[in-house]
Amino acid sequence: MQLLNNKQLDLNLLVVLKQLLEEKHVSNTALTLGMSQPAVSRALQKLRVLFNDDLLVRSGDGYQITERGKSLQSELDKVLQGIETLMQGDTFNPQTSNQAVRIFSLVPQAMVLLPKLFSELRERAPNMHMAIDTVPQNHFTALENGDVHFVISTAQPDYRQQNLYRVPISEHDFRFLMSATHPLADEEELNVADLLKARFGQISIYGDTRFPLQERIRERGFLGKEESLQVPVSITNFNLAASIADSSDVIFHLPEPYAKEMAKSGDLVIKKVPDEISFGKIQVYLYWHKRFHNDSMCTWFRGLIKEVYGVS
Question: For residue 223, what pLDDT is reported?
Answer without folding.
Answer: 95
